[in-house]
Design goal:
The protein contains seven helices and three strands, in the order αααβααββαα. It is an alpha+beta fold and 116 residues long. A three-stranded antiparallel sheet has the order 1-3-2.
Length: 116
């Protein structure tokens, strides 16, 4: 019985795998922010109105586990932690740009100065 549950949870195609990695409300927005450069936790939280500290932490950890985000901890007091995209994370930039262009082309966008 348990083996069936594992099999049914495996992605059936590459698109599904991609959606599992970057899907959800916040991950693409976090990636969008990190495309612009290295950010500290507080900077990310301020740039994403509505995200809770718990949710941001969870999403960053998941993306770090998936190899999308790099977390750099500096040994100083107070602690300093910076987040950036890995090469794998950077490879998502053209995909996000295409999504942006698709929304504009189809008049599905709302004005957002953060989305370039």
């Amino acid at each position: 019985m348990e083996a069936r549950a594992e099999i049914s949870e495996k992605p059936t195609c590459a698109v599904e795998t991609t959606i599992k990695i970057i899907g959800g409300r916040w991950k693409v927005l976090i990636i969008r922010e990190l495309i612009m450069g290295v950010k500290r936790f507080g900077e990310l939280q301020r740039s994403l109105p509505g995200i809770t500290q718990k949710m941001l932490t969870q999403q960053l950890r998941e993306m770090e586990e998936d190899g999308i985000v790099h977390r750099e901890v500096y040994p100083q007091i107070p602690p300093k932690v910076e987040y950036s995209l890995t090469a794998l994370g950077e490879s998502l930039k053209p995909i996000l740009c295409e999504m942006h262009e698709w929304a504009i082309k189809n008049h599905l966008h709302q004005m957002d100065e953060n989305c370039n």
